Each structure stands twice: as C-alpha cells, then as structure tokens.
Amino acid sequence: MNSSRIELFSFFNDVRWNETGGGVEFGVAIGEYRGVVRVPRRTFQRLIAGPVTPKSCLEAFYFNRFAFEHATETKLRAHQLTDDGNVELNAHDLEMA
C-alpha cells in the first residue's frame, strides 16, 4: 500500500510591520515546524506605485496575500530557510509564485 503524505500549511493572522527588520512579518506552521516569514521593504518596490511605507507594504501584502503564502510554501517545501530557521521572501520568490 502506497501512502501519500498531505502537507497542510497554516498561516497565522499575525501580519505585522517589523520596524527593526524593516519589513512585513507573519507566522507559518506545517506539522511541528513553526516559523516567521520575513518580507523586506525592498521586496515591495515592484508592488507599490509610490512611496514604500510600512502602511503601503501592509496594504500590498493583504492585496497579494495568496502570492506571499504560495511563495512561502514553495520555499518551505524546498527547505530554503534562513540561518535562524525562518523564511525570507524576495521579489524573485513572488515572481515565481
């Protein structure tokens, strides 16, 4: 019998601006893994037609949430984590999503 494993990703409703890191962050979980997804301010430059402010970055995130979540799933499936075990998305990741 061939069993397949279904991976269920959970995205938390904790989207926030990290002033220290200069970007948007949100939580993700799959199985036992719990992590933070970081999206630097520069990643939003292609999504925002105007000043890239914390408010405009958060608005762009919510407007494009599916793409951010899909890019996160792709990076987690490929085990592409940062040194601290979290995920960082860049413009290329979003283009591929």
Kindly summarize this structure in a few lines.
The chain has helices at 54-63, 65-77, 91-96; strands at 9-11, 16-18, 23-30, 33-40, 87-88. With 97 residues, it is of the alpha+beta class.
Q: Could you describe the 3D structure shown?
A:
- With 97 residues, this protein is α+β, with helices and mostly antiparallel strands.
- Helix content is 30%, strand content 25%.
- It has helices at 54-63, 65-77, 91-96; strands at 9-11, 16-18, 23-30, 33-40, 87-88.
- Strands 1, 2, 3, 4 and 5 form a 5-stranded mixed sheet that branches.
- A hairpin with a 4-residue loop joins strand 2 (16-18) and strand 3 (23-30).
- The longest helix has 13 residues, at 65-77.
In angstroms, what is the radius of gyration?
Answer: 14 Å
State the helical fraction: 25-40%
The counted number of beta strands is 5
Class by SSE composition: alpha+beta
Biggest sheet features: 5 strands, mixed
SSE sequence, one letter per element: EEEEHHEH
Strand content: 15-25%
Distance between the termini: 33 Å
Query: Judging from the principal axes of the Cα atoms, what is the shape?
Result: globular
Number of helices: 3
Query: What's the rounded overall pLDDT mean?
Result: 93
Extract low-pLDDT stretches. none
Task: Please give a handful of descriptors for the protein shown.
97 residues, alpha+beta, 5-stranded mixed sheet, 5 strands, 30% helix
Write the layout of secondary structure elements.
Elements: E1 9-11, E2 16-18, E3 23-30, E4 33-40, H1 54-63, H2 65-77, E5 87-88, H3 91-96
Parallel strand pairs: 4-5
Antiparallel strand pairs: 1-3, 2-3, 3-4
